[in-house]
Amino acid sequence: MTEIDWNNLTFGYIRTDCNVRAVWRNGEWGDVEVHEEETLPLHIASVCLHYGQEAFEGLKAFRCPDGHVRVFRSDENAVRLQSASRALLMPEVPTEMFNDMVDRAVRLNERWIPPYESGASLYIRPLLIGTSPQVGVHSATEFLFVVFVTPVGPYFKGGFQTTPYVITRRYDRSAPLGTGRYKVGGNYAASLRANREAHEAGYSCEFYLDAKEKKYIDECGSANFFGIRQNTYITPLSTSILPSVTNKSLMQLAEDLGLKVEHRPIPIEELATFEEAGACGTAAVISPIQRIDDPETGRSYVFSRDGKPGPVSTRLYNSLRAVQYGTVPDRYGWTRVVL
Ligand SMILES: Cc1ncc(COP(=O)(O)O)c(C=O)c1O
User: Fold this and answer.
1) Is the pTM above the cut of 0.85?
2) Given 124, 152, 180, which residue is the final one in a domain?
3) Does the pLDDT value for residue 244 go beyond 90?
């Protein structure tokens, strides 16, 4: 094994020892197999390649200060993948099978789990694809479920920091009755251009409004949004955003910290009233937002004048990290010790 510089990992891809796979054929899941190769033998007419019949998940395993390795809320990822399966006519991966394959992929790649001190973690990517060949637009009849892992670096190299975001009105990532609430590739393909343009303009991420009326806040790139005002955690309710496991956890922790929680449509003007704002997701837990610019109206919604994260976001961030690293009691059973 080549020496890994655990302290300088990015959110990229590094080959690990193996991945685990199962094939759905003739109406049932076959045995789980361990594969060392990182490529798939895929038919050129596979439905996933042409018509996007695929869904994926993203979660993490953490090496903790007590020496154990914990996986965070994988049941939630299993349930979310099942909802995508129903939407895209794919077979559901039962929660137990999902968890077993996740645990197996983590255990078999134990030497790739970064040390606690590095702040890095093991990213787990379950992927479900329609593999059988077809050129007509129909559901596949065979599917592959694969779970692979790769070590990823801490999101905040220089510490927990705020960054600027920009509202995009030129592109939508998903429609109100479309697939935005599922973790399917098409949503991400639709976001690539907006994301590149935001980066080129010096922003860390693009920020979407609801596609129908452009009146309400949807989400930021690949993270949910929340705002803090008067001891209240406010996060959008929308049919076109991904129900984030991190956001769900933060809503609970916010309540535990004595905040009120509001989960409802948020009109864009309300941005002007927030004392703090953040983007939340598996990659960073919370990415505090410095400001959101709206180039079409010329407005800039500033949440952090000194560039520092706000006190509530910081408390929420530390609370969630403490559960993930097993340094506080796991009162809701969110983590599973796999090693
Ligand atoms: C579009 C989108 N929204 C939100 C999230 C955050 O979800 P989670 O907290 O489950 O990682 C993600 C994934 O990370 C995402 O891709």
Assistant:
1) yes
2) 152
3) yes
Per-residue pLDDT tens over the stretch 11-35: 889 999 999 999 999 999 999 999 9
Of 154, 189, 195, nearest in space to 321 by CA = 154
Is the minimum distance from the CB of 84 to ligand 1 under 6 angstroms? no
- Do residues 178 and 301 share a domain? yes
Give residue 105's pLDDT band: very low, low, confident or very high (50, 70, 90): very high
Is residue 82 in some structural domain? yes
Q: How far is the CA of 280 from the centre of ligand 1 (A)?
A: 7
pLDDT at 339: 96
Domain with 203 in it: what CATH number?
3.20.10.10
What is the domain range of residue 218?
163-324
Distance (Å) from CA 27 to ligand 1 centroid: 30
The finding on whether 249 has its CB within 6 A of some atom of ligand 1 is no
Atom 16 of ligand 1: nearest residue by CA position: 222
Any idea which residue has 């955690």 for tokens?
Answer: 233
Total number of domains in the chain: 2
Strand residue runs (E) in 96-190: 121-130, 143-152, 163-168
Instruction: State the Rg of the chain over Cα.
Output: 20
Q: Is 119 exposed, middle or buried (0-12, 13-18, 19+ CB in 10 A)?
A: middle
Question: Looking at ligand 1, which atom is closest to the CA of residue 219?
Answer: 3
